[in-house]
Amino acid sequence: MPRPGESPRASLIGHDGLVKAYLIALDGSEVDASQEAAVRLFNEGKLLWLDLFDPDDETLARLSGFLGIHPLATKDAQQFGQRPKIEDYDGFTQIVAYGVQSITEPLVEVHCFYSQHYLVTVRKSDCAAFADVRELLTRHVIKHPSRLMLLHRLLGELTDGFFPVLSDFDERIDTTQDAILAKPTDQQLADLFQMKRWLIMVRKVVTPQRDMIASLVSGVTELPGMTREIERYFRDLYDHLIRISDLVDSYRDLLSGALDSYLSVVSNRLNQVTKQLTIIATIFLPLSFLTGFFGQNFGWMVHRLTSLPVFLVLGIGTELAAVTGLLLLFRRRGWF
Amino acid sequence: MPRPGESPRASLIGHDGLVKAYLIALDGSEVDASQEAAVRLFNEGKLLWLDLFDPDDETLARLSGFLGIHPLATKDAQQFGQRPKIEDYDGFTQIVAYGVQSITEPLVEVHCFYSQHYLVTVRKSDCAAFADVRELLTRHVIKHPSRLMLLHRLLGELTDGFFPVLSDFDERIDTTQDAILAKPTDQQLADLFQMKRWLIMVRKVVTPQRDMIASLVSGVTELPGMTREIERYFRDLYDHLIRISDLVDSYRDLLSGALDSYLSVVSNRLNQVTKQLTIIATIFLPLSFLTGFFGQNFGWMVHRLTSLPVFLVLGIGTELAAVTGLLLLFRRRGWF
Amino acid sequence: MPRPGESPRASLIGHDGLVKAYLIALDGSEVDASQEAAVRLFNEGKLLWLDLFDPDDETLARLSGFLGIHPLATKDAQQFGQRPKIEDYDGFTQIVAYGVQSITEPLVEVHCFYSQHYLVTVRKSDCAAFADVRELLTRHVIKHPSRLMLLHRLLGELTDGFFPVLSDFDERIDTTQDAILAKPTDQQLADLFQMKRWLIMVRKVVTPQRDMIASLVSGVTELPGMTREIERYFRDLYDHLIRISDLVDSYRDLLSGALDSYLSVVSNRLNQVTKQLTIIATIFLPLSFLTGFFGQNFGWMVHRLTSLPVFLVLGIGTELAAVTGLLLLFRRRGWF
Amino acid sequence: MPRPGESPRASLIGHDGLVKAYLIALDGSEVDASQEAAVRLFNEGKLLWLDLFDPDDETLARLSGFLGIHPLATKDAQQFGQRPKIEDYDGFTQIVAYGVQSITEPLVEVHCFYSQHYLVTVRKSDCAAFADVRELLTRHVIKHPSRLMLLHRLLGELTDGFFPVLSDFDERIDTTQDAILAKPTDQQLADLFQMKRWLIMVRKVVTPQRDMIASLVSGVTELPGMTREIERYFRDLYDHLIRISDLVDSYRDLLSGALDSYLSVVSNRLNQVTKQLTIIATIFLPLSFLTGFFGQNFGWMVHRLTSLPVFLVLGIGTELAAVTGLLLLFRRRGWF
Amino acid sequence: MPRPGESPRASLIGHDGLVKAYLIALDGSEVDASQEAAVRLFNEGKLLWLDLFDPDDETLARLSGFLGIHPLATKDAQQFGQRPKIEDYDGFTQIVAYGVQSITEPLVEVHCFYSQHYLVTVRKSDCAAFADVRELLTRHVIKHPSRLMLLHRLLGELTDGFFPVLSDFDERIDTTQDAILAKPTDQQLADLFQMKRWLIMVRKVVTPQRDMIASLVSGVTELPGMTREIERYFRDLYDHLIRISDLVDSYRDLLSGALDSYLSVVSNRLNQVTKQLTIIATIFLPLSFLTGFFGQNFGWMVHRLTSLPVFLVLGIGTELAAVTGLLLLFRRRGWF
User: Fold this and answer.
1) Which residues pair with C114 in a beta bridge?
2) Which pLDDT score is estimated for B144?
3) CA nearest to C238 within chain D
4) Does the complex come out with an ipTM higher than 0.85?
5) How would you class D81 by CB atoms within 10 Å of its CB: exposed for 0-12, middle for 13-18, buried for 19 or more?
6) What DSSP line would sit under E31-76, residue for residue?
7) Cβ of B204 and A246 within 8 Å?
8) Which in B175, B307, D272, E330 has the greatest CB count within 10 A?
9) Which candidate in B89, B111, B189 is best for mutational testing of the A interface (most A CBs within 10 A)?
10) Distance CA A289, CA B291 (A)
11) pTM of this prediction?
């Protein structure tokens, strides 16, 4: 790495006091993230991790200049919306990775600049993984970590954060499917569509994130400081990403299954409702015809409908006969 | 393999008497699975197979330390929920494989640690394959087996266990499909969704399990003790896994076909029901209109509806004419 | 190939006279398939082809021992249900291939053991391909064939047997599709499901069969006796298998198209039926209301409905006006 | 190429005057396609192109013998129904390619035998590409072409012939889609199915045709006479085939989209029709009930329905109230 | 590159004053695009960029001759409708790329001819990317650019132009999906079909455009003037194209999800409408039957329906009982 100039410029971080940053020294202790502290640590070779939260473009540009980060990589960190990728530059490696907070929040994009002399991370939203790793460091659970193991830990926490969220998602598919079978509503369709959208978004970052780690593990991309032992840990991380990627594919299948069953349930319900309508109409339309028939004002007929037996046979009997016949017909069709 | 220290610690297995384990010596005989026995066998180089059933984390950790198993591999065996994989470590190989008991039970995850000095398996649920292999050993059907052939046998039994379960699954698809054609219900949809879920789960383990054995057969991963003859047996195992994987793909197709036909059957039924409704309405609505017409209280009309011929022509005749016309219409449309 | 022992054991084939077998000498003549004949031919180096029909396990095991066939290969031939594959052993090659008889019969699995000294085939059901090849040999259409060319011929006949059956299948798809367009029934759905199942089964064997021949043609697997000229014939066979595989994929597409159109046709019919119902109801419900209205027993109204003009205007006129209005409405909607 | 015997046999082409053939000399001039002419041109090394139209098997066999074409290649040309392929033989190359005439006609299969000494084409149906190339030759637009450039031209014309036909197909999809949106009929379903079938057929030849040219361009298969300049022309041809293949894939997508929208349109229509039915029934069934109520023969009631106010309130008022209430209900549901 | 002849012919560009062209010198300044200027700049080695807008075939041919562009490449630029591709010729490289203006306009095809001595672009429609790059050049934002960096800039602007348009598309999918859930219409189906068509078109150019840049980045195709630093910029461009390609795939998924939910929404609506119809019919058909019954002219019955209690019990009571019973039934079925 071309070591940047010796004279650190003023106001490196948070020139107007607005940039939130965490600064960790090589021994794991957290240092107040002022510009001087970062410069001093870097110059002494003791800079472990500088974590920038939503820095303004100017700060980022100055910092990049100071640390020798390529303008293209800096531009990515300013624009965000990148795919997970690992890009080898002279003197440092750019890594873009994603984490997740919950089903309802957008994914957390993290830009890492890793070199033998520092690990810088840039992000625009909060993610539990960061606080967790920071805590592990300050509680000295991880003792004297190398910058590469720290990078692994961070990527690992980001990745493992997907498991509980996907587990929630899994449950939500099941809940929705059960709800559909119980009573299909338009709201469920909107939910399914939204879930599909979320899953597509997750898939769009998980697949390249997996491939990025694969390129590390297979040795296509090399990181300084990588040993066989550390590679094993990255291999483990790779394994987790494959599992996540498999999960996402499964949910995709289940979601489309849920949509299909929605249609089927609705059709089946429609069938039952229509069958009831048909039964009602099949019973009462003939009966109404009969009553209508004897309600006609044909003099000849009216004069012959006066006695009780006639009423019992024609008024009651025909109706009963019709109903009986129809019920027999329905039973033969297996409708009851 | 770095041979672990000479002084075996106390209470290696089942320190509180709760860990179930099976211990098999190199000559195939089953030894009471106490800690001393395992240590003694291992030190004498006579440890063939140690099968741990749901060990607590501490026991597993101590055992791993004793046998020189890497913490990452131990952590996997403590957490479970891994993908089938084969991972080469110094001195031992970690293999994660899956078996199946029945359609209704979850899959059986098995972690194997194989080295030239031992075969250790860890699992959390029971699976017929284990008892079968143990019986073969103690009945001396397999005489003086090498640890690798034992591993093959175990993986083979786990794998072949899928065939009868998948055969049940096949039959269940057919039964469901027949039931759908006979009478579609919501319950069938729930069944199909559950079957899909099960199949996705099986697929998620069968594909990597197949690829894992493929990497063994193709020589990408090497196991100590592998000979050309033993490789042939693994190739046979690979073949079985391809068949299982093909079966799973077929069932996936058939399941989606069953779901599609559900919708079609329901629609067809709806069609028939609606057609009947239409026929009934088409016959009786006009007839009711006619009876209603002659039931009106128009004096002029009522005075002219008094004679028998009028009744026969207008009261009976028009109705018969209407029915006849409609029946002719229906016949022309091929509805009878 | 390690030549097996000199002392042929008794009752090699059909030890109890039940095993059906065909024995062909190197000059193409058919020899009575007794055990002595087979042994004599083999020892004289004149054994061309031994075709076993559903042998019992014992016969097969003894034969394998005699010919030096590996137990794994023998086990496959005893169990059947294998995938098409080619497996290279010391001294012989195991080939599993499939043929077809008709759409309604199960596929014909054939196990071939090919070496420079013999071609042995094992099968459990009959297939025209075998009789055809035998006839070609005995009629000396194929003169002094090499064992490899015989193997090619056999695989070729098995493969080409798929063409007429798939052609029948093609026609059956068309017939079903036409029948669906004419009048959709539940039976067609059952047919489509069964056809799908058959196609999946065929696909499961055709793809690996194609790949198996591909491995022969590309030189991944080598057969003794292969020359550039014979390879050309296998390349031709490979070509046929690709065509079959393409056909199967096409039919898969067409079948799913047929299922989709089933649903569409049914829905369209339902639409028409419902439209008719709607027309009927839209015409007669208003008319019935009108007749009902004038059938009410309001004294004031009844007293004013006595004259002919009133009857013509209110009794006939309103009804005609209603019908006319509705017909105009329907025409404007394009329902006639 | 092994030059065939010097003594040309009699009746090479059209031994009974029935075989239609075109014979082009090296200078581009068309020669009367008699047997003597072909033999003479070939012996003089001036045979550019021999185009055979549906030759009988015997003629083809004799010709093949004369030109040194392998029996396997000849058999393919006799049977037809081959996949597009390029096959390298000693002394010549066999190329099977397809052209198209229109959506309603079957594809045109062309077998080419190319060597440094001739280009022979065999086909069984007519295709504009042939006449076009012949005209270009005789009009000397292509001057002194090499046999390879001629082959390229021919394949190019066959390939480019797909563009206008696919463009027609594209338009037909649009027309059908528009027609479906206007008014779905069963005929459209039959059309879509037929179009799908056609597309599958085209796809089955375009993909291997593309791969065949790819193997030429990538140098996997070599043709004698190929130069870097000519290769550029084949690369252009390859490009066209990729575009055709892309188009076919797009149409596949659009066709399935059209089928899906068919179902959706039909369902939507059904919805509207059913809604109208429901409106009619919801209005007139209550009204009919009311008229029926006051048409009952309860003496007590009839005696109280005599005055005008009663008629206005109960006879007209209740009906108006019911209609008003229902209209308000419909408006609130947004049905108007 | 074979330097063309020294004597520039007359009327190189716009021989009749109709061809619109932009001519940029090496220092970034825009020069009046006359033929003399272009020739002079080229001869002086100061030609940076010549941008031709819809040139006629003759102009293009003359220009190609002058600059040494191969006829095949010229023909492509005359015909248009090419796939994105990069083709290496002697002395220059042909690049076909696509840009986009809006969802409603066709894609913008751009043909670039790049060499160490010039960059020529040909296009037939306008695209903001061109004006943007020109402005950057003339405003000297890009100072002394190399021709390769200019090519990168141009391809980058064309590519980045997809982002806002796809973002519009994304929003349109959401809008349509919301509209479908609110009220499905035929128009939405037409929209979805059109959107699908647009997406297929975009996909057809984005995928090869991405692969084209991939071949540049991976070094399969080499451009003169490429340095490691510039390659980094092309890698960035490649990244953008992957993102676009991923987006297109996502939208494809979402579109098909929208179509599926259309069908589901329609079916659900149908269900509700039919349920209402059934409720109405189930309530009023029995009631009408009752009123019809007591409207019959059976003398015996009529004589017994005279008193008030009879009216209350039979006339009102039975009706109320029927309504109450039906309402209870509906409540038990959960229809209210």
Assistant:
1) C93, C119
2) 65
3) D83
4) no
5) exposed
6) E---HHHHHHHHHTT-EEEEEEES--HHHHHHHHHHHT--HHHHHH
7) yes
8) D272
9) B189
10) 7
11) 0.85
